[in-house]
Design brief:
Helix 2 packs across helix 3, helix 7 packs parallel to helix 16 and helix 10 crosses helix 17. A hairpin with a 4-residue loop joins strand 2 and strand 3. This protein has one domain. The chain has a two-stranded antiparallel ribbon with strand order 1-4. It starts with a helix and ends with a helix. The chain is mostly helical and about 400 residues long.
Length: about 400
């Protein structure tokens, strides 16, 4: 589990530093959050799972809100906190199924691919494979060392994953980091090991009041939806795998892991680490024989050891992390094939989510457009009964969002 998810403590700080956060301090915060969240899952959830900031939520915070949306970081952390609180309350009161019924199935299945295409775009942009042109995106300088290393890394990573090589993400990151030394991509200032940087500048740097502005509702929903459905899918997948491997059909109650996940989201926002979620790569632990929270405790200990290697993590170039971001994003996009293409009133709203996310570079707005489009398309098609009453409550807020944006 550690080898499958260790890339997060390199990739996540790199993305957040693009938004102006101090790289060393945010690396410390991310490692602490991963270690504590994973340990909590082991102690309270008693399941082999790793918790870390999700690439989708981090992308939304770093690139959509802070860089492109003129939202300060404390306000973004406030949105993350409230989304985690909503998740926690739904878990405590056992009404998770209500959310699943309100959100149309086609939109639910499109959220993952939309996040994936946004993540892949971030990877292309950070590697210089795509640049902003006068009227649209243009091809970057493919002859640059960073672009060449990124493309090579993507090819190697796909090959390693196809062969199910353990720790493929770490292998590619380390290899490109080493190759990047003579190419001038990797630059290490000072000793590679040392005490972690102080996270004091990021602790409790959060705006809980300002983040409740009605204009931010679609983003709050984007955080909540991505965390809710991602965690639900991962927890169910891992627990089912454990049951199958043990030769039993006994269902594991997901309430405890959901409580840990939602609490970790809230705690992560206080540490400046957005959208903590249960990682799909946790399945590697179950496949390797992990059955209980003891696996999570060992993984948490491994992450804690990385605290003395934060200077080394800061030297890893974006060309080494971009292949990971791109491949993870493309893998998530592949989930779009599950959407029923025989019913256009279901397919088109899902396509709207994907296309608007890509064209606007903002999957929060993409999800809002898909939800509003779903209502309009169903109404025009005369399929009123397909619309859950909860969607009618949400529609005025979505309309207000686009009026405000206009």
């Amino acid at each position: 589990m550690f080898l499958a998810t260790a890339y997060t403590v390199v990739v996540i700080p790199g993305m957040l530093s693009d938004a102006g956060l101090p790289h060393a301090a945010v690396t410390t915060c991310v490692i602490v959050v991963v270690a504590l969240g994973t340990a909590a899952m082991g102690l309270f959830g008693n399941l082999p799972m790793v918790l870390a900031p999700g690439l989708g939520g981090v992308s939304l915070v770093a690139y959509t809100l802070v860089l492109d949306g003129n939202v300060d970081y404390p306000t973004a952390m406030g949105m993350v906190f409230w989304s985690g609180l909503a998740f926690l309350l739904l878990t405590i009161f056992g009404i998770r199924s209500l959310v699943a019924r309100i959100i149309p199935a086609s939109i639910r299945m499109a959220i993952g691919p939309a996040i994936g295409i946004f993540i892949a775009f971030v990877g292309f942009r950070s590697a210089g494979l795509t640049v902003a042109g006068k009227s649209s995106l243009e091809l970057g300088d493919l002859a640059s060392p960073a672009a060449l290393m990124t493309l090579l890394g993507v090819v190697v990573l796909i090959a390693l994953n196809a062969r199910k090589v353990p720790g493929s993400f770490i292998i590619v990151i380390v290899a490109i980091t080493i190759i990047g030394i003579p190419l001038g991509l990797t630059k290490l200032d000072g000793a590679p090991f040392g005490l972690p940087a102080s996270p004091s500048g990021l602790l409790f740097h959060i705006d809980l009041i300002g983040s409740l502005s009605p204009h931010y509702l679609p983003y709050l929903f984007a955080f909540f939806a991505s965390e809710f459905f991602s965690t639900t899918g991962v927890v169910m997948t891992v627990t089912d795998h454990i049951g199958q491997s043990a030769g039993t059909t006994t269902q594991i109650d997901p309430k405890r892991p959901f409580l840990v996940d939602s609490s970790s989201i809230m705690a992560g926002s206080l540490f400046g680490s957005p959208s903590v979620t249960t990682y799909a790569e946790s399945a590697a632990g179950a496949e390797a024989g992990g059955r209980t929270g003891l696996s999570s405790l060992w993984a948490a200990a491994c992450f804690a050891i990385l605290l003395i290697a934060t200077p080394l993590a800061g030297a890893i170039p974006s060309a080494a992390t971009a292949p990971v971001v791109i491949v993870v994003g493309l893998t998530i996009v592949a989930g779009f094939r599950r959407i029923d293409s025989s019913d256009l009133t279901e397919l088109l709203p899902a396509v709207i989510v994907l296309v608007c996310t890509l064209l606007w570079g903002n999957f929060g707005t993409g999800i809002a457009a898909g939800l509003l489009g779903y209502v309009l398309i169903k109404v025009c098609a005369g399929k009123w009964k397909d619309i859950h009453p909860g969607m009618w409550v949400m529609t005025p807020f979505l309309v207000y969002f686009f009026i405000a944006a206009a």
